[in-house]
Amino acid sequence: MTEKRKKTERKVEKKEKVVGALKSEERRIGTRGRIFEGIVIKKFPKRVTISFERMIYVRKYERYAKSKTKIHARLPEKLEEEIKIGDLVRVQECRPLSKIIHFIVIKKVKNKEEIK
């Protein structure tokens, strides 16, 4: 192989590098953007719903208010049996996979028992 071709192959490998995302023969889902941690509140085939609290500044009252956010995330096959309702998981932004799914589960952080 020529050196030029080797360099382009290395660049392609770097771009296809996936952090805990779905790695199948047919499809690769690359991750990018923001990372969140939240508790799994619902579990579906190939998808989970996570919830987490965040603080929002209210200008009118010059104070902070708690707000809950729900995110739908793709659940890779290799993590499907490992993750259960109540677990703390880390999700990262990816390309839009459907109307509501824009995140993918990277890894399980803690069990339900470890959180309490």
Which SSEs are present, and which pair or pack?
Layout: H1 3-15, E1 31-44, E2 47-58, E3 63-74, E4 88-94, E5 103-110, H2 112-115
Parallel strand pairs: 3-5
Antiparallel strand pairs: 1-2, 1-4, 2-3, 4-5
Kindly identify the CATH topology: OB fold (Dihydrolipoamide Acetyltransferase, E2P)
Low-confidence spans: 15-26
Q: Mind telling me which CATH architecture this is?
A: Beta Barrel
Radius of gyration: 18 Å
What is the H/E string? Answer: HEEEEEH
The largest sheet, given as strand count, sense and whether it forms a barrel, is:
5 strands, mixed, barrel
> Fraction of residues in helices?
10-25%
Verbal overview:
- It is a single chain.
- With about 120 residues, the chain is mainly β.
- The protein has a single domain (about 20-115), classed as OB fold (Dihydrolipoamide Acetyltransferase, E2P) (Beta Barrel), CATH 2.40.50.
- The chain has helices at about 5-15, 110-115, and strands at about 30-45, 45-60, 65-75, 90-95, 105-110.
- It has a five-stranded mixed barrel with strand order 1-2-3-5-4.
- The longest helix is centred in the first third of the chain and has 13 residues, at about 5-15.
- The protein is extended.
